[in-house]
Amino acid sequence: MSADLAAIYDAYGGALIAFARNLTRSDADARDVTQEIFCRLARNPVLLAEARSPRAFLLTMAYRLAVDLHRRRAVRERHAAGPVEVFAPPAHPDETHFRQAVAVAMSELPEEQRAVIHLKLWEALTFEEIAAVLDLSAHTAASRYRYGIDKLRTLLRPVYEEIL
Amino acid sequence: MNDFEKRLAEIPLNPAPAGWREAILAAAEKETPRARATIFPWRPVAWGALAACWVLIGFFNFSGPGRGEIHSLAIAPGRTPTAPQMAEYFERHRLLLRWPAATETIFQIDRSKI
Predict the structure, then answer these.
(1) Total domains in the fold of chain B
(2) How many Å apart are CA B114 and CA B109, to the nearest integer?
(3) Per residue in A36-72, pLDDT tens?
(4) What is the pTM of this model?
(5) Residue B13 bridge partners (DSSP)
């Protein structure tokens, strides 16, 4: 096993899988996306060396592969895959309901808004960084984020007010 | 980032299943140039023999008249034959004319001698 690939997996594998899982809403697809990234890195070892930010470069690869996969898959196949556990199971039972509600609300967002929200909230990227990863303008990234957050707030209002 | 966004960001993401690391890295390992080289390993004698075969095939292919050349000779009656071609043609024609006579002598059996 290549030590370099193992080190890259240990550094970024978790983030890539979580991002791919949130985008594809499928464990199998998230694994396919991540595996394809590492196969490409293995075929072309200098690929990552040329990247200015390895994390952003890998997230871009994940996004493009996930979008390609999403387009290839029929809607019926995607729904047949069943729900995916995007968030870790909570230690406190009261939190379970909220996390499930967030997962359901996230799945109702368009893929491009979900990608921006994931990168902003769970990767803590700036809008400029998100724009670079998703190959769009920072203004578009910011507006997609605002639309997405507004929709999430609307969808989660009953649950969120309940736990406050 | 407001309270709602902070609340969302605090939710931890589900970690990757334990077996994925080994499976993904094993699949990637098969794609490394080193691993792919084992499919066609470097064997100087074997590769040299294969190259020699191709050289021989190429030599025999290009040493004789090409198919196009033979074909053009056969289907181009208007083309003026060269002197050696004419000589060869007359020689073949002469031999062909002699052939029935030869066969006649073979098959003409003197039954009186049987």
Answers:
(1) 1
(2) 9
(3) 999 999 988 888 887 888 999 999 999 999 988 878 7
(4) 0.67
(5) A87
